[in-house]
Design goal:
The complex is a heterodimer of chains A (about 700) and B (about 70). Chain A has about 700 residues and is an alpha/beta fold. Chain A contains 32 helices and 11 strands. Chain A folds into 3 domains: about 170 residues, P-loop containing nucleotide triphosphate hydrolases (Rossmann fold); about 90 residues, Helix Hairpins (Orthogonal Bundle), CATH 1.10.287; about 400 residues, no CATH class. Helix content of chain A is about 65%, strand content about 5%. The longest helix of chain A has about 35 residues. The two termini of chain A are about 55 Å apart. Chain B contains 2 helices and 5 strands, in the order E-H-E-E-E-H-E. The chains are: A alpha/beta (about 700), B alpha+beta (about 70). Chains A and B meet through helix 3, helix 11, helix 12, helix 17 and strand 9 of A and helix 1, strand 2, strand 3 and strand 4 of B.
């Protein structure tokens, strides 16, 4: 038989850490509420095979069973609809009262339950005492103390959870005071046989709370609904409070009694280290400068200094001097066919190597992101940025996806689930990929090196372009009917700061960095091979053959079919068009394709004299226009897939992709046309269209806001 | 008076959370309920950081205006 055990608890209470300890897997953890946005399953250690198998399900953190954000819906749905055999309710021992609030609700579901009090090492360090036996008695379910991080008490928890699941005794809810109990039984009486017999109390309480989903599920007749509504209103009048608050207070009251029974709390220092740090980093005056400094350091170090030193080494020395010549020589010496030599050296090493060269930069970037996420600053960033983002119609919580998006767009788009309001969330999904992800770094480096002499301003300008695109999109979109309205007020729990754990940081760097390498070895490898064949073969003198002139190749034919679209942007050459299109598969492909078409030395910054061919086909403005287009246009297929999943609507998916591509096209057009006009004085129809686009853009920016009724 | 009037470092008691919407319910789930002591840790131009139960919560000014304290 298979037993499913769900891990449920407050955000940031250590569910994923426990999940990793229970299953021996390596799911990603972080120190901010909302790291886990999708449920994850794994086999319990020691119960993978055999008679009884146990699946552990890690759920996104929830504060209650009345969901507020999308990821909370995932958890509620799983618990109520899938009905796992048991719940392990993980409770943060350093914040018992608030955490037990969810416990009281989980008990109402009737699913057999174990409560795991986590972070007991910290509780003991604070010299606080918890009487587990008393707590078990009060809660009416087994209580196990653990430390998920230090893997203490895990075996006992496993044992208890499995035995609770096997016994399958439904859990019972805690009892309210007499008055409220009579209200609940009155509702039950009114609803009579309509309530599911296995757990009528839960439904009755939810009906009293006016939980829309449950009321809908029960399919009440209009008259019955009216009767119940009237009854609830009369109770509300009596209590002088709304029904939801009545239940909330009653729950907290239960908890207070319980805590009083079993918990000896020490008067904690009112001023913890985290509070003192917060006073500085969220300070009215210092917050933004500190934030700017942190961001500057992260990207300056990873993109410009340490990262590029390592990347230069990989490109110039490792690939340029060692691998490439020796591979070529080796293939020649064994008498390999010329085309195969070409495929391996130009196609595979040229294409994939150009991408792999960026691995060090990307690892350094991920290292910084992991430290930021693990130390607790992430949640503060959201808080600090809220004030500013609100002006552009976004919530501060939109900033977390954007920061993650500098690594990869896919988790960034998923991270948008923590945003409460649909329209803010949709807007974040639409705009978050404007921030250059790590796969776009090679494109930036390519353009900077080939066309701007490696100028230091190019990389920052790419991030700046992304930020401006987000801000202006926010302003423009908020003024349309689709997005009108204010973002919901900011409320977010701030975790304690802690020194990032070396294990967590390295694990997350490895996990994300290695997927970049894997991608280079699979999708990019395949793409470059295809690109190589397409540029090597074609029709010459009416026969299909290996071409002398690349301009006769299949790739050139295909590229020429779409190149006209990009002519107004200044790069109507088939090579650039083909590169941009292969970029849809994965953004690194843009560089990989150039690597195949121009040779490895071109794209790997392998010395000035080699930049010749690429720079002769671009001007400064067409090059920058190419860069901006690739930064802003529809992201790679993986990210588009994420957008489709998160939007969960074909219409919204196309709105997002369409908007991104349109914006990219318009921006590139303006850069190239206006730039060319100013520098060369050439005035064409394109310049007029660019002018109209700019005026239109300004109008959309400054037009008065729509009033929402 | 609204929570926004509380100086940093002071602890006050919640009298009522005004309004009836999802955000209010969310605040209640976080522990912002009648009679609960709440301490203001720090404030910046955008909002407040407060301690409620044993958690630390950041809320924007407009939300803090709806929390009445005494």
């Amino acid at each position: 038989m298979n037993i499913r055990i769900a891990l449920a608890g407050n955000p940031n209470s250590g569910k994923t850490t426990l999940f990793n300890a229970l299953t021996g897997s390596n799911q990603y953890t972080g120190n901010w509420p909302g790291v886990t946005v999708e449920k994850k399953e794994g086999k319990l250690k020691g119960y993978g095979k055999g008679e009884t198998t146990v699946t552990v399900v890690d759920l996104p953190g929830i504060y209650s069973l009345s969901p507020y954000t999308l990821e909370e819906v995932v958890s509620r749905k799983y618990l109520l609809e899938e009905k796992p055999e048991a719940i392990v309710n993980i409770v943060d021992g350093t914040n018992l009262e608030r955490n037990l609030y969810l416990t009281t609700q989980l008990k109402e579901t009737g699913i057999p339950m174990v409560t795991a009090v986590n972070m007991m090492d910290l509780v003991r360090k604070n010299k606080e005492e918890l009487n587990l036996a008393q707590m078990e008695k009060d809660l009416g379910c087994p209580v196990v103390e653990i430390s998920a991080l230090k893997e203490e008490g895990i075996d006992r928890l496993i044992e208890t959870a499995v035995s609770v699941a096997k016994k399958a005794e439904p859990s019972h809810r805690l009892v309210f005071d007499e008055k409220l109990e009579s209200v609940i039984s009155a509702i039950e009486k009114k609803l009579g046989g309509l309530l599911p017999q296995n757990n009528p109390d839960w439904y009755a309480i939810k009906v009293f709370e006016r939980d829309e989903k449950v009321v809908e599920q029960l399919c009440l007749t209009a008259s019955l609904k009216q009767e119940i509504d009237a009854y609830i209103s009369s109770v509300e009048k009596e209590y002088d409070d709304d029904s939801e608050s009545i239940i909330t207070s009653a729950r907290y009251h239960q908890i207070e009694t319980m805590i009083h029974d079993c918990y000896v709390k020490r008067n904690r220092q009112s001023d913890s280290i985290s509070d003192r740090i917060d006073r500085v980093v969220t300070n009215r005056i210092l917050a933004l400068p500190i934030f700017a400094l942190v961001m500057f350091l992260v990207y300056y170090v990873s993109v410009t200094t340490v990262g590029s030193i390592l990347t230069d080494f990989v490109n110039d020395t490792l690939f340029g001097e060692w691998i490439l010549p020796s591979a070529s020589a080796a293939l020649e010496s064994i008498g390999c066919a010329e085309w195969l030599n070409g495929l391996v050296v130009e196609g595979i090493i040229g294409g994939v190597g150009a991408v792999l060269g960026f691995v060090p930069q990307i690892f350094v970037l991920y290292l910084f992101l992991a430290v930021l996420e693990d130390c607790g600053y992430m949640a503060r960033i959201a808080f600090i940025m809220d004030r500013i983002f609100r002006r552009f119609g976004l919530s501060g919580k939109s900033f977390i996806p954007m920061l993650i998006g500098t690594g990869c767009g896919v988790p960034a788009i998923m991270a948008s689930r923590t945003i409460e309001q649909d329209r803010d969330r949709r807007m974040t999904i639409m705009t978050t990929t404007f921030i250059p992800c790590s796969a776009k770094l090679p494109i930036i480096a390519l353009i900077a090196g080939a066309l701007f002499d490696g100028a230091a301003w190019v990389a920052p300008s790419a991030y700046f372009t992304g930020i401006v695109a987000i801000v202006t999109s926010g302003i423009i979109l908020k003024k349309t009917r689709l997005f009108a309205g204010d973002p919901s007020p900011f409320v977010m729990e701030l975790p304690d700061y802690h020194i990032p754990s070396v294990k967590n940081v390295f694990h997350s760097v490895w996990e994300r960095g290695s997927s970049f390498v894997k991608k280079a070895g699979t999708i990019i490898l395949l793409s470059t091979i295809i690109v190589w064949f397409m540029q090597a073969f074609g029709f010459e003198n009416g026969v299909f053959t290996m071409v002398e002139d690349m301009n006769n190749s299949i790739l050139a034919m295909a590229g020429n079919c779409i190149a006209w679209i990009f002519t107004p942007l200044g790069w109507g050459d088939w090579k650039a068009a083909a590169a941009a299109v292969t970029g849809l598969v994965a953004k690194e492909n843009v560089v990989g394709t150039f690597g195949v078409l121009y040779g490895f030395g071109e794209v790997a910054e392998d010395g000035m004299e080699l930049w010749g061919t690429l720079s002769s086909e671009f001007t400064a403005f067409s090059g920058f226009s190419f860069l901006v287009f690739n930064l802003l246009c529809a992201p790679c297929f993986a990210a588009m897939g994420a957008i489709a999943r998160e939007m969960n609507s074909a219409m919204w998916f196309w709105i997002a992709i369409g908007y991104q591509t349109l914006l990219a096209y318009a921006c590139s057009l303006c850069i190239y046309q206006v730039g060319t006009w100013i520098t060369t004085g050439v005035f064409t129809l394109g310049t007029v269209i660019a002018g109209i686009a700019i005026i239109g853009f300004i109008y959309l920016l400054i037009r008065p806001e729509r009033k929402v009724a | 008076m609204p929570l926004t009037f509380t100086a940093a470092g002071k602890t006050v008691k919640i009298v009522k959370v005004k309004g009836k919407d999802d955000t209010v319910r969310f605040l209640q789930n976080l522990g912002f309920v009648e009679g609960e002591p709440v301490a203001v840790i720090s404030e910046n131009a955008g909002g407040l950081i407060v301690r409620i139960k044993d958690g630390r919560v950041a809320i924007s000014k407009e939300m803090a205006c709806r929390i009445l304290v005494a």
